[in-house]
Structure formats: C-alpha cells, structure tokens
Amino acid sequence: MMRKLENKIAIITGGASGIGKGMAMAFVKEGATVAIVDLNEEIGHETIKELQIYQPKSMFIQANLAEHDKLAGIVQQVIDKFGKLDILVNNAHASKNMPFEQVTQQDFDLSFGTGFYPTYYLMQAALPYLKESKGKIINFASGAGINGDATQATYAAAKEAIRGISRVAANEFGPFGINVNLISPIANSPAVQKWAKEEPEYYQSMLSKIPLRRLGELEEDIGRAAVFLASEDSDYITGQTIMVDGGATKLR
Ligand SMILES: NC(=O)c1ccc[n+]([C@@H]2O[C@H](COP(=O)([O-])OP(=O)(O)OC[C@H]3O[C@@H](n4cnc5c(N)ncnc54)[C@H](O)[C@@H]3O)[C@@H](O)[C@H]2O)c1
Q1: pTM for the complete prediction?
Q2: Is 120 a catalytic residue?
Q3: Atom of ligand 1 nearest to the CA of 114
Q4: Which of 12, 67, 84, 104 is most buried, taking the most CB atoms under 10 A from its CB?
Q5: Per CATH, which fold does 9-186+217-241 belong to?
Q6: Which of 118, 106, 152, 133 is nearest to 230 (CA)?
C-alpha cells in the first residue's frame, strides 16, 4: 500500500522531543523526509538518528527560533538540500505560567518570540515553495488559549494569535491549494510530565476533565492526526482547529 507521505519534505519545529518528535516519527514511517529544527543540540542529534532509520536523508537543524532573522535561512537550507517543501509544522513554543498580576512584557516577549513570531516568519518564508507543492501548514493551538486557563496569559495570547493568523492564511493561501490547519493537543510530553510533578493536584484535575481519561500519545495520537493533516486525506479541510485532546474541549 502507498504510504501517506511518500516523497514529501517536511519541516517540524521543536522536532527533537515531545510532540514534535512524535510527529517526526509518524511522518518518516509514512515516507516523508523530515527536517527537525530545535534548540536542544544533544537531543536533536539523538532524535535524528532514530528518524534516519526510516528516512536516511532526514536532517537536524540546530536553531533558536527566537532569533527571527535566521528563520528564512532555515527554509532556504531545506530548499538547498531537497529542492522543495511540502509540509511546514510550527510546533515549538516556550512560555512561563504565572498569575496575571505578575506578568511582564518580557514574559509576553518569550511566548510571542518562540511561538507566534517563528510561526509567522516561517509561514511567510515557506509560502513560495508551498505554492509550488500545494503544501500543508500545521500550526499549534492550545486548550489553554481557547478556554483562557488561569496563569496562562502570555501563552494563551500567543496561541490565539497563532489561530488568528492561521485563519487569515487559510483564506489567503486556499486559492493556491495550500491547507492551513491547527492541532490543539493534550499529550504526554516532557513538558507535561514536568508540570505534572510540579503541580500534581492541577494535573489530576485536568486528567479528570478529559473524557477519554488519559493523555495523548506523542506519536500514535498526535503524530497520526498530524499525518492526516499533512496528507491528501485532509485536502478539503482548511482553517480549522482540530482538537486532539481526548475530548477535553469541544469547539462550537
Ligand atoms: N503537551 C501538551 O499537552 C500540549 C497541550 C497544549 C498545547 N501544546 C502545544 O504543542 C506543542 C508541543 O508541545 P510539547 O509539549 O511537545 O512541548 P515540549 O516543550 O515538550 O517540546 C518543545 C520542543 O521545542 C524545542 N524548543 C523550545 N524552545 C525552542 C526555541 N526557542 N527554538 C527551537 N526549539 C525550541 C524544545 O527543545 C523541545 O524539543 C507546543 O506548541 C505546545 O504549546 C502541548
């Protein structure tokens, strides 16, 4: 049977660990060659070895996405190596939780600088190539943004800004055959595991609000949903936020 992403070239930010790695593993198993972009050099080198078992040409690009003047160069590096780009996944995002009254502009800068701005710059840099490939963009939202979870002001704001530009891009890029969708996940990533240890009560209360009563698996749940949004199976879906969260949030 034909694999769903045969011969596709994908960029996944934050692809060294967590959900990004889960998606990268799911992509290479479906035939895609993946460029993972990550700050963490050590984990990046480990992950790329695992990916290369399935797709030997997959590459690791070490980069800090907060260095915005370098983002166009990341797309260029992928084009220089592979000659095309089919899929852009904007997954990485760093932020800090705190009560609203303590938030400073610096905290907003971290969240927008690592989440919103890289998403915007990479979409813009990738656009000419995605027009050629009639490609797919997958951005990352969060229930924390959609529901306005307490202590998440900077994160929620950046996530909803990402949803805003994704809907605009769906309208503008649709005529070129480019799909722009978002995944709003809940998954068992290192970030969530760390948080579960730090705030066990909050974590338990979150778990009790998930109808399916478990966290998503990085590759099997989030990775497979991303394969769907990256493949021709989703060709008639654009501008949507897909909740891959065990039913925790139901969009209306
Ligand atoms: N895990 C969840 O339950 C959950 C829930 C809602 C939304 N999300 C969203 O899903 C996405 C992935 O989440 P995750 O839990 O896997 O995150 P994570 O923090 O576990 O992994 C993020 C990856 O991004 C990399 N990264 C962080 N800052 C970077 C930077 N400045 N430049 C380059 N790389 C950087 C990290 O090194 C890491 O490999 C994020 O957008 C997150 O907001 C996750």
Answers
A1: 0.98
A2: no
A3: 31
A4: 12
A5: Rossmann fold (3.40.50)
A6: 133
